[in-house]
Each structure stands twice: as structure tokens, then as C-alpha cells.
Design goal:
By secondary structure, the chain is α/β, with parallel strands linked by helices. It is built from 9 helices and 7 strands, in the order βαβαααβαβββααβαα. Helix 1 packs parallel to helix 8. The protein is globular, with a radius of gyration of 17 Å. The model has no long low-confidence stretch (mean pLDDT 92).
Length: 212
């Protein structure tokens, strides 16, 4: 098996990057046969701007842009996608959102079958989301930010393409044991990525039945 860990944060020494590294270590420690690749979107200089080439692809008048094709090939090699990101304005950072906008393109992630029904093309992909936030848990609960993010991201993006979100974790500065506890949690997330549980297998079965 192979996992792609996507991380976006301008500071390579940030907690976000440390968490991504711990996820990778958790995967390797639990299953030596499970390989990982970390995609640092900032360091790699990915261009998140949806441009004329992307628009041409969307309207069926152009080919997949070269940089997008590279990212799609990365994902094609992966059984699992782990996204580790800081929460900006209760959502993805712009760079990560632009990566989704461009890479999860029509014809690759989904398509229209002509009857108004979306064909979900990423049903093989297992997703784990790790969001790192500075606000306390009470703020997320009081304003409904957490469920809003899960609707927008877990359902609105990944379920739309058929990808299974197996875990969606919020790691907040107000959590007990911050920040060391978050590194332990990240290691545990990695272990679950490499060793799917019986619950995850059951989720896969239910997902397949619902979407069949």
C-alpha cells in the first residue's frame, strides 16, 4: 500500500509539518510494507490559481495541464490520502483549496453522465483529514464551525468524488497536552492509515452498497 500525505504551511518547522511527519512515522512503524510520500505544496511551489487551461479542461476544450497531471499521477499511485493543514477562516488555506480546485478535475475525480447525475471516480481512495487550529473547542462548538467544515470538505469535496473519509480530526491549541499530545495523536492516525480496522472495512462495505 502507499499513502500520499499532503501538507501546506509556510513554515517548515511548524506544528503542522511536525504532525505530518508523525503521521508518516506512524504508517511506517505499523506496516513496513506501506510506503509514504509527503507532498509539501509550499516547498514544491504548486500554483493554486485556476487558470485558462483549467477552464478549458472543465469545458471539454483542453487537455489536463502538465502540473495537474503530475499531481493526479501521485494520487493514482496512492491507496490513501492524508491531508494535514492549518485552519484558515474555518476552512482550507488558499493553497490547499487551489490544489483541490485544479487537481480534482472533471474527467478524473468525477464526471457528468449526461443525465444530471455525477459519476464518482475516486471510490478507491481512502482519505484522512487532520486540521490544526488555534481557536478553542468551545468556539468550534458554539458557532458550528466543525460540522460546517465537515459538510463542506468531507461531504462537499470528497464524497462528491466518491472518496471515503475514514477520519476527520481537529487538533486544537486548547486540547489537553498541546502540543505534544497532538504528535502522539498524529502517530496514531498514521497507524490507522496503514492498518485498516474492522470498522473501516465495514464503512467501506456500507459505502459501496450506498453508492452501487
Amino acid at each position: 500500500m502507499h499513502s500520499l500525505i499532503v501538507v501546506t504551511h509556510p513554515n517548515p518547522h511548524s506544528l503542522t509539518h511536525a504532525i505530518a511527519q508523525q503521521v508518516a512515522l506512524g504508517i511506517s512503524a505499523s506496516n513496513s510494507q506501506h510506503t509514504t510520500e509527503i507532498a509539501d505544496l509550499v516547498a514544491e511551489g504548486f500554483d493554486p490559481r485556476f487558470n485558462q487551461e483549467d477552464q478549458a479542461l472543465f469545458t471539454g476544450q483542453g487537455a489536463v495541464p502538465a502540473d495537474v497531471a503530475v499531481e493526479q499521477q501521485r494520487l493514482d499511485r496512492a491507496d490513501a490520502l492524508v491531508i494535514v493543514y492549518p485552519i484558515y477562516w474555518w476552512s482550507f488555506p488558499a493553497l490547499l483549496k487551489g490544489w483541490i480546485d485544479r487537481v480534482f478535475s472533471i474527467g478524473w475525480a468525477y464526471e457528468d453522465n449526461g443525465n444530471g447525475k455525477v459519476v464518482k471516480k475516486l471510490q478507491r481512495l481512502n482519505v484522512h483529514l487532520v486540521a490544526v487550529g488555534g481557536a478553542d473547542a468551545g468556539t468550534f462548538t458554539r458557532h458550528g464551525y466543525a460540522p460546517a467544515m465537515k459538510i463542506q470538505i468531507d461531504h462537499g469535496i470528497f464524497d462528491y468524488c466518491g472518496a471515503r473519509v475514514h477520519s476527520s480530526t481537529f487538533l486544537l491549541a486548547s486540547d489537553e497536552g498541546y502540543p505534544a499530545a497532538h504528535l502522539e495523536t498524529a502517530f496514531g492516525i498514521g497507524a490507522k492509515v496503514s492498518l485498516p480496522s474492522a470498522e473501516a472495512e465495514w464503512d467501506n462495505l456500507v459505502h459501496d452498497l450506498i453508492n452501487s
